[in-house]
Design a protein that fits this description.
10-stranded mixed β-sheet, 9 helices, 27 strands, transport, MHD, MHD domain-containing protein, membrane
């Protein structure tokens, strides 16, 4: 069986668990039938009793919809529990006790003819808008049987060093990754959320690369009639001072939100994955081919082979754009017993407006200082030279914006925002809080913080009003949050650090006890108490800490947390920081425009920009509970 990715079928279900679109690929399905026949003939039922659960044929749409609804009922939600709980049944996904089963699921199909039950796996589940997308890649029957055995295992979890686990099984299946890409691409098409990687264009001339023209056009050049349509540029919000004003360029067609367009979906599937094999999942390329077709001017020279990722040859003013976009994730505890966690994930976005089929090469610098942990490249790239602090990259660029490289690194400069957040409940409906933050400490120019906001979310309490004045910035409230805008657009922070404090109080609407659902096991025991329980009559005379009593009393009445909100199992746990930094990367990763080479040599300016944005940047309440990862003892 081929080692690439082939798709047997895909389904799209609406919020009512009804199949609104499906597509089966007979060519791939014939491969599955042949593999099943070979596997069943090679072993007897005594040796392999699981063979009877292998479904040689794909289910009908009603059969799949019924099985999907049954799984949602059995697993408690669309994605399921993900871990083994008291409600888990043997043979179900949650019985495997691995969170990945919330994204790679199985269905037990009850066939209309014969009344037999068959296992269908692996189904990639992707939720986009109001739709659930299921993609079934081609695997070998032995992989299906291995998963069926995992669903019957008496123990739970994945022991370290054990081969017989779901993780080791998935590592043997490269088609899983391709199926995820297919699911996400289809989700973007049906919801109109087609977004290309962001490439920022400097409004002022930058230093050119090798053989660059100092008089080259810096503005957004027009793409010829044979290329893809260009979206209107969006002006970026730039602070005063040394910040660079620029534009963002993209070729992605703006589809907008709309009902499911089956004709568009069929056209995309036929072009992107003919006969069930993904070829090019770029909607921009598919859209361009469908809109413009081909002409004799799109044919490359006979001695050059045109790659699949570049269906058109660019014509127009030439230039090369690079943007490093880094996202920083942090968990700040301000506790001696728990170290702060800080990580950086980044990517180098590129846009090559170059005629013909040139090769571009440049050295990546700063790898040693950036302390890169994970590194991956676009299929168009080759990495012929590697060193401790230098890595040469050569690539044949596709049209439009694309991600040339992704990486994970350690932030060498330290956290751009550090400090602490404290919130103490002085009564059931009132809390006192304090922020003390240091911004851009140790950061120097050209690094510029364009904006910085801090949000205190209260998803289970309604904010009535707050009282407090920050040392800098403005404050606003919503029904369930308080937002502190420390730095706003037009007031960028460059070359210096500042300290920001914000003491205050927040008043909530009166607390209302909420009834908790009761879960009773088959032996008659109960997993949770409800409102009629006598737990609330606990004796509080011996409680010295009134705040601890209030937190216990309020948290006891909170409804069970949704697995989609991992941070919100209590109501007062954290504050979230959002910001944007421009001017350079914080990992040390960089592209030197002077070192960029283009072959054959052309006169094309090379521009480089960078930006850093916050991901999950969390300030945990120093006075509350918080999760942390346990460190291994050496």
């Amino acid at each position: 069986m081929p080692g690439g990715c082939s798709i047997r079928a895909l389904w799209i279900l609406n919020s009512l668990d009804a199949v609104v679109f499906s597509r089966r690929f007979p060519v791939v399905e014939r491969q599955w039938k042949t593999a099943c026949k070979t596997a069943n003939e090679s072993c007897s039922e005594v040796e392999d009793p699981v063979k009877c659960s292998v479904l040689p044929l794909l289910p009908t749409d009603p059969e799949l919809a019924a099985s999907f609804a049954e799984r949602k009922r059995r697993e408690g939600s669309v994605r399921g529990f993900g871990i083994r709980v008291s409600q888990s049944t043997e043979g179900s996904d949650s019985w495997v006790d691995d969170p990945i089963t919330r994204h790679i699921i199985s269905l037990y199909i009850d066939t209309e003819e014969g009344g037999e039950t068959h296992l269908l796996w692996p189904l990639i589940l992707h939720i986009k808008g109001t739709y659930c997308i299921l993609v079934l890649p081609l695997v070998e029957p032995r992989h299906l049987k291995a998963y069926a055995k995992l669903c019957q295992r008496s123990d739970c979890g994945n022991a370290v060093g054990v081969d017989d686990s779901l993780s080791s099984l998935l590592l043997d299946l490269p088609s899983i990754t391709g199926a995820f890409m297919v699911a996400h691409a289809i989700g973007d098409v049906i919801t109109g959320d087609v977004v290309e990687p962001e490439v920022v264009v400097s409004a002022s001339p930058s230093v050119g690369g090798l053989l660059d023209s100092l008089t080259g056009s810096i503005g957004i050049s027009g793409i010829s009639s044979r290329a893809k349509p260009v979206a209107a540029p969006v002006a970026s919000s730039a602070p005063s001072g040394t910040a660079i004003v620029g534009t963002i360029t993209s070729d992605a067609p703006k589809l907008g939100s709309r009902p499911l367009d089956k004709d568009t979906l069929r056209s995309f599937i036929s072009s992107a994955m003919p006969f069930g094999t993904p070829v090019d999942l770029s909607y921009s390329n598919i859209f361009a081919i469908k809109t413009n077709g081909f002409s004799s001017s799109d044919v490359p020279p006979q001695d050059l082979k045109q790659p699949a990722w570049k269906p058109y040859l660019y014509k127009g003013k030439q230039r090369l754009l690079f943007t490093i976009h880094e996202t920083i994730h942090a968990a700040m505890y301000d506790r001696d017993e728990i170290p702060d966690s800080l990580s950086v994930s980044g990517q180098i976005n590129c846009r090559a407006e170059l005629e013909g089929l040139p090769d571009v090469s440049f050295p990546l610098t700063g790898l040693n200082n950036a302390r890169i942990e994970v590194l991956s490249f676009h299929p168009c790239a080759q990495v012929p030279e590697q060193g401790v602090d230098k890595q040469s990259v050569m690539f044949s660029p596709p049209l439009g914006n694309f991600v040339l490289m992704r990486y994970q690194a350690i932030c060498g400069l330290g956290p751009p925002i550090k400090g602490f957040y404290q919130l103490s409940m002085v009564s059931e409906d009132e809390g006192a809080f304090l922020f003390k933050l240091h911004l851009m400490e140790g950061y120097k120019g050209p690094l510029t913080m364009e904006f910085c906001n801090v949000t205190m979310p209260f998803p289970r309490r309604r904010v009535m009003y707050f009282d407090g004045t920050p040392s800098i910035g403005t404050v606003s409230t919503t029904e369930h949050s308080v937002e502190w805008k420390i730095i706003t657009g037009g007031r960028g922070l460059t070359g210096k650090s500042i300290e920001a404090t914000f003491p205050g109080t927040v008043k909530f609407a009166p607390w209302q006890i909420q009834r908790l659902p009761s879960f009773r096991s088959g032996s008659g025991g109960s997993g949770m108490v409800d409102e009629d329980s006598d737990v609330e009559t606990e004796n509080t005379n011996n409680m010295v800490n009134i705040e601890e009593f209030l937190m216990k009393k309020m948290n006891k009445d909170l409804p069970p947390v949704d697995l989609e909100e991992p941070f919100c199992w209590q109501a007062y746990d954290y504050a979230k920081v959002s910001f944007k930094i421009v001017g350079a990367s914080i990992s040390g990763m960089a592209v030197d425009p002077k070192s960029v080479s283009i072959y054959p040599s052309v006169r094309a300016p090379v521009e480089f920009s960078s930006q850093v944005t916050s991901g999950d940047y969390i300030l945990w309440n120093t006075l509350g509970k918080c999760p942390s990862a346990a460190t291994a003892n050496e």
